[in-house]
Amino acid sequence: MESTIGEQRSCDILAMVDRIHRWLAFRSPPFRFEDFFAAFDAYRVFEVDLPLGMDGRLFLSPDGERKTIYVRKQNSRPRLRFTLAHEITHAEVHFPSGQLEQLTACRTSEHYREGRQKLMEREADVGAAALLMPLWMIDRHLPYRIKRPYPDSVVSEMARLFRVSEAAMRIQLKNYSAYPGDFATP
User: Fold this and answer.
1) Which residue of 19, 62, 138, 163 is 20 to 30 Å from 32, comparing CA positions?
2) What pTM does this model have?
């Protein structure tokens, strides 16, 4: 199994997400992809039939000026949103650092077998979660902070508000609960 995401790498990913949030003046959920694609017009997105187990695929031009994302049209809207955010993280973090050797990346269930996940995929998931559910914004909308799991009703309401799956919100709420200290609103 590959190593965990390092502190510096996490900071780099969160800095990229913060730049996007600032550029779009993102102040309340949900994250609007319409605004993102209007501001970042290098992206093209297509909902297509992808093989079972493949949620999304990113293709980049050699200069990075064209970024095409294909998402599996059969997936739920919350899953499509997370896949888009995941592929955007690949394009904005992994391409500039030269990590996308074939100018492509994909989100598939194959990466998750036996609990193993490639480091780049974990990084893209961290970026996707931060893009859609920033911890500082969760802090503004959650009535209280606890160390144990949040009740299903809270998870459900927060997932609805941020337009993400309950599974994604549960994971981000664990990150929120584990965060040491207060949140500064960007």
Assistant:
1) 62
2) 0.90
